[in-house]
Amino acid sequence: MSALDKIKKMLKGHEDQAGKGVDRTGDMIDDRTQGKHSKHVDTGQDRLKQQFGSDRDPDNPPRA
Known about the structure:
Elements lengths: L2 H9 L3 H18 L5 H15 L12
């Protein structure tokens, strides 16, 4: 089992909190780098949210 699989298992049911953590971390990195790498940080945030399932909108479920 990979580290990412273990993290996903731990975060199951707490996707919204994981998404908030990803957002806060990205904002902190943007502050420390003075926005120099904001495009890369945003891309990383989006990919992490997809991996953890926190990019899903509860009011707008994905279509099957």
